[in-house]
Amino acid sequence: MPNRRIFQLLLVFAALGLAVVAARILTAQVEGDRGVAAVVSSSDIDVAGIEVDVRGSSAEDARQTGWREAQRKGWAKLGGPKMPDSQLQGLVSAIVIQKERIAPKRYIATLGVIFDRARAGRFLGGGGARQSQSAPMMVLPVTISGGSALVYERRNPWQRAWAEYQAGSSRISYVRPSGAGGDSLLLTYGQTSRRSRLWWRNILDEFQAADVLIPIVKLDHQYPGGPITGNFTARYGPDNTFLGSFSMTAQSDADLPRMLQEAVQRFDGVFTQALADGKLKPNPTLRYNSDEADPVLQRLIEIGRATRAQERAAQAAAAAGEGGGGVSAAATPTPTAAAVVSAFTVQFASPDAGAIDATLAAVRATPGVRGAATTSLAIGGTSVMSVTYGGSIAELASALRGRGFTVNQGSNALAIRR
Asked: Which CATH number fits domain 339-418: 3.30.70, 3.40.50, 2.40.128, 2.30.30?
């Protein structure tokens, strides 16, 4: 008996140890150095990548001279009219230091100049005008290097380049996840090849986006510490549609951030051109922020139901004629009042993604159901959907039983299972 008691205690301690280890593993999946918050986008005009190399009577004088030269070069890039430095300085809201080297009487730097749109726009004409924006587009930056693909699993230069991009003057309305917490588990490279509209819709709704942009960079290192070739590919949407590609080269690891920052600007040009060409439109199958069924599909369902009703009426009329032994006129159906359309909560078991898709499809195909959409997903547990139905909750429960579900009815809610 004592030995048995000791064995039971050992089993309890082993179970507790396994529970602690499992909890630690789950926590470790979202721990670590990850998450880069995107900069706040403004509508100001940003001109980046301006190189200056000037001298002065001191280090500070050389720096101020370099900044004034950067302002002039940035203004020239925008095509603005000539004006004195004192007036030009009044149009500048910030100087961004991308890279700088300071000597006692020399200043070498790569700078960015941000011009205030309200003040500078009147001198730039159409160049400073605010253009129409795209629908909100979530960015999923993918880095492929050394045979592995990385998105938000840990902080990386490609993620940082997109987070630091000043997109206020772009026509693309970017939605940039930080990559912290559960983002690294939800937004992975595998998601880019997933075709399920249900999965995409729930992800995009969480980030309040209409569609997804997938900028991909494949980095090839010639040798450790040497030049790096970046092959960039722009893709879009749940079908991973190709939009364009280009290549760039960084001289070393230290030069990699510069290359990626320039690549982000080129990607913005690719996406903007796709928007102008009419390619960058939200996919209608995602049905962003809509709990209603697709109008075309809903119309086909209604036509099918009407046809089935006519067939049943004809069969009933034929049966009545045979039973009466004579010819009888077909009865004209008495019009009934339209059923009240209500929204009900339905809970269902969701062991995997296939079960979610199958349950959702079966509920949508139930007679009387106008629309169904998930409101909460729990893989391996119980998920929740909102069902729009033309009738009472009791009638919905009966219709679902007719589809083969076991239904438990509560207060304005149902729980179903196969």
From this structure: 3.30.70
